[in-house]
Structures are given as structure tokens and as C-alpha cells.
Amino acid sequence: MLSSTLLPVLLAFVSVVNGAYLSESWAMLTSDRPSTPKCVDIPRNLSLCFGIQYSTMRLPNLLEHETLGEVTQQAAPWIPLLRLNCHPDTQLFLCSLFAPVCLTTMDKEIYPCRSLCQAVQNGCEGRMQQYGFPWPEMLNCNKYPVENDMCIQPVANYRNQTCQSCSQVSTYENILDHFCRSQIVLKAKVRSVKDSHLDVRRARSLKRGDRRRSVMRNTSIFFSDGSNRSCPCETVNGEREDNQKGFLVMANQNPSGEYVANLILPWKKEKQFKRAVRMFRKLNCQSLGREIRERAVRDPASFEKRPSRHDRYLF
């Protein structure tokens, strides 16, 4: 689900429709629409956008897809990117293009603002490039209008100082992505939590071939690198006493020899969490990007036809 603030943001456009006009640059984007637009229900198999806080979409969409079949096929490979949680506005941005809101009181298209596109690109492009996916030309941020009353602006508020490593989602994709990018992966019991780090009482390494596989004791894991060393880690603070299973901790070692966390999650019984942990023993991180590229190019529709299998692939 998108943020509860999304629906008011979208509906706010209705209040400015009278007297609104398109700039010349924006009009160029809409001058070659292939057919008369119409409002249709967002289908259940459009997994990227089904269940968001509006139920009808404009067709053709803003990516020139003219049928629901084409929309669902082209949207499916983007679901793993959404599950990486690389930016909190990823779904808002993608759905503004694949399933743009359709308001019967408004006959003009509602584009994402350039700032929304740039925010999502800045958050996600590095993760995509790591697995061999460049930011696609169809999402070139220069195509979208600068901020005005007729475009969708970013919703996410980054003033929240919670440490990034402590605000990760426990999706299958996100856990495996961090596994491949982390030098150490631990199932850890926590001794104490400070403003800048946590002290591990004991831990077992989950990295295959790691010599520290038996036990790691009395290790400090810092929440963030650089100057931002005092961000709160509510993930650990709120659950340390009640969590008998411990925590999943992934980190890298900085030049000073300190371990800096990438991901900290309570050890869970959830299906996606358990499935990701089982994959640690056989995951080939070096071939991950190639598998994703070949799969997405060869048969993007298969992500939609077999949702239980597309969980294997990450951006």
C-alpha cells in the first residue's frame, strides 16, 4: 500500500482543473496520444499497482501502453525493484506512469513532477546498475514537468532520522540484495544498544565459507558511517528484550576496521524471511545480475504468469 497521504495528493488536482493549462513542453508529451483516453479499473493481475488508494487508471497510460495486457506485461518486471524498497516513493512514481490516476472531472493527464522522478532515480539507480540495469530512457526525468499544481510531487519525508540500516523491509528481494552487498551476515544476540552502535553478545556467521561461522563474540556494529553516528535504531531498541530469536545483522567493514550495518532485522518466522535465509547457502551473487537481465528480456510476462517464481529475481 502507498502512504495514506497519496490519495489526498492525487485528489488535490481536481481543485485546480478550472483554468489550468499545459505548458508548451508538457503539451509536447501528450500530442501524440494513440487513441482517446478512457478510465478503466486497475486489474488484480497488475500487481505493481493493484490495491493502491485509487481504483481506476487512465488508458492509454503515460508510457503509451494501449491495452491492459500490455500494461501488466511491461509492469511486472518492476515488482522486484519495488520490493527492494530503494526509495519510499518508488510505487508512487511507477504507478503514476503505468497506472495513472483517472479522474472523471479532469481530462488532462497528471504527470509525475521531475523532482519525484529524480528522487526515485537517486535512490534506486545504484541498486539497478549493480545488477546490470541502467536507468531506462523511458524514465528520463527530463521528460517530466518541474513542480507546478498539475504534477505529482514526492511524498516521502526524509527528516526522519531513523538509521537507514534499521528501517529496512523484510522482503525476500531486499534481504538477498543486502546479503550480496555485505561482508558479514550474522544471526546475532544483542548485549546492549548505544546511540551509535549495538554490542553483539554472540553471533553465528551465515556467510558460506566464513571462518567465523562458529561464533563471533563482543563485536560492535555501528549504525551508520561518517558523521551521522547518533541516529536511533528502534528496530533493536523496541524488540531486544522480547526477541528470543535474535537479529539478522548484515554489515561491511570500513577502512578503520569498524563494522557498519547495512541491514538489521528481528529474526522472524515470516515466509519470505525464512525463504531468504534458506537461499543464503546456495545463492550465487556473481550471476544474479545476468540471470535478471536474461529473464526480464526473454519473457517479461512470466513474472506475471508465475508470481511464485519471479521472487527469485532481483533488480
Can you describe this structure in just a few lines?
The chain is α+β, with helices and mostly antiparallel strands and 315 residues long.
Q: Can you tell me about this structure?
A:
- This protein folds into two domains: 6-152, Frizzled cysteine-rich domain (Orthogonal Bundle), CATH 1.10.2000.10; 164-268, OB fold (Dihydrolipoamide Acetyltransferase, E2P).
- Helices cover 31% and strands 17% of the residues.
- The chain has helices at 6-11, 24-30, 68-75, 79-84, 90-98, 114-130, 172-181, 234-237, 271-279, 285-298, 302-305, 307-310, and strands spanning 38-41, 56-59, 111-112, 151-152, 184-193, 197-205, 216-222, 247-253, 259-266.
- A five-stranded mixed barrel has the order 5-6-7-9-8.
- Helix 7 packs parallel to helix 9.
- 35% of the residues are buried.
- Residues 1-34 and 299-314 have low confidence and may be disordered.
Corresponding CATH architecture of the largest domain: Orthogonal Bundle
Number of helices: 12
Strand segment count: 9
Uncertain stretches of 5 or more adjacent residues = 1-34, 299-314
| Relative strand content | 15-25%
Helix content range of the residues, please?
A: 25-40%
The gross shape turns out to be: elongated
The biggest sheet, with number of strands, parallel, antiparallel or mixed sense and barrel status, is: 5 strands, mixed, barrel
Helix and strand content put the structural class at alpha+beta
Average pLDDT value?
76
CATH topology of the largest domain: Frizzled cysteine-rich domain
Order of helices and strands: HHEEHHHEHEHEEEHEEHHHH
Gyration radius from CA atoms, angstroms: 22 Å
Taken together, the total number of domains comes to: 2
Strand order of the largest sheet: 5-6-7-9-8
CATH superfamily of the largest domain: Frizzled cysteine-rich domain
Distance between termini? 20 Å
What is the CATH class of the largest domain? Mainly Alpha
Family: Belongs to the secreted frizzled-related protein (sFRP) family.
Subcellular location: Secreted
GO biological process, one term: non-canonical Wnt signaling pathway
Pfam families: Fz (PF01392)
